[in-house]
Amino acid sequence: MFTVILVMAAGVATGYVLRRLPLLQRVERTTSLTILLLLFILGLSVGSNRLIVDNLARFGWQAALLAVAGLAGSVLAAVVVARLWLNDGRKEDRP
Known about the structure:
Helix content is 82%, strand content 0%. With 95 residues, it is mostly helical. The protein folds into 2 domains: 1-54; 56-95. It has helices spanning 2-17, 22-48, 50-54, 56-85.
């Protein structure tokens, strides 16, 4: 796990230093397509694994629960970050 975090941190640092290069502007556009392709390939590997497909009904609800919990946690974290650090200097009218 630390390897993944270190590689991502190195990518962030490199992207920050090289952010004005035109090449990075093109890379930014392809990020979504790359993620979609990776998800499709993951789906292919799951669909071709007979053990997973045979036990999908047995463990599918747990996977769905984990996905919903992960999504809810991500949304909650985004709201907290937006309120704490992305306030933009505006004060909300509070009753």
